[in-house]
Amino acid sequence: MKDHIVLSLPSARAWDSVVGLVLGGLGTRLDLPFERLDELQLAVSTALDALQPGGEVTLEAGFDADELVVRVGPFAAPAATSVVSGHVLRALADSSRATAEGDREWLELTFALAESR
Amino acid sequence: MSLAPTMSQRELLVAYREGGEIQARDRLVEDMMPLVRSLAGRYANRGEPFEDLVQVGAIGLVKALDRFDLDRGVEISTYAVPTIVGEIRRHFRDRAWSVHVPRRLKELSLRLSRTLDELTADLGRSPTIAELAKAVGTDEEEVIDALESSKAYSARSLDAPFDGDGEDDLLSRLEDRELGYDALERGSVVRQGLAALDERERRIIVLRFLKGLSQSEIAAEVGISQMHVSRLLRRALETMRGQLDELDGIEESR
After folding, report:
1. In terms of residue numbers, what domain contains A50?
2. Which of B140, B209, B226 sits opposite A91 (nearest CB)?
3. Contacts of B202 (CB under 8 A, 6+ apart)
4. What ipTM was estimated for this complex?
5. Residue A117 lies in a domain
6. A48, B33, B144, B247 — which has fewest CB within 10 A?
């Protein structure tokens, strides 16, 4: 069973550093190497860039010894899977997929942990 | 045309400016690099890597070679000094922090940048935050704070033209199968995003996302620190996204 961290905050760039700090703390607890942590932060930052301003963004991080799954949203579909961000996210995360909830989309990024350490 | 090894600086300058001999300019740059290194040395230990200052100074030198009035009765080196120094000073001005960051975090961030490269080389892998914290003698929270703060550090100085090493035509090479371009969806869209980047940013994007190099590998290949690679990647992706939003007519972006 995975442990979870849930963070909700305004969808505006001014708050992105808070996400960065939370992921930094999480990556440290998970003993991630700098490069892996930096790319986790870059992936989430890329995802956040696809959000429309205003409203609220929620980041859910579920983790165990093997993997970290980060869920970000909600997006106005299909922003989460645009060409550039889609390619970047596939390169940075071990897997990425968008799931629909009504007219909104959530982006799920999975990072394998065992091989990162 | 081959250049005589005995040509004076003035003769080389005339060959470059009036004869368009790029080899002559390269010889001049090579001859005058000790001057650039000496001037860069005056600004060392102010938080910028010495080699970055040398590179910036070299850009100033090339500008001086391009602008020098051949009819003036002074040596090119006399004219070049203020141009080189001006370029280095502009570099410091441009690298301002975009938001207020406490001095201790700025200093820690600079120390971390150096330590990260050293530890990566020593360990043969990317260090953890705990290892970085131990190496610089602080706690993990402080390291995380400094790393996050460093993202507010402007990298505008890197907008200066970058003299790549044979990869100066990346846009055309992106269609080369060896770079894996076929793997990208709707390549022309990505191409438009890449067109908004400067040469160094394009190179870093290609190395990371098309060639699959790690940040530390890119740092070694491009000759800059890992943290700088990280900042440039962020800025390049942001620029690409802005460009594509503009092309798509998206009104709002964060």
Report:
1. 3-112
2. B209
3. B170, B171, B194, B236
4. 0.87
5. no
6. B247
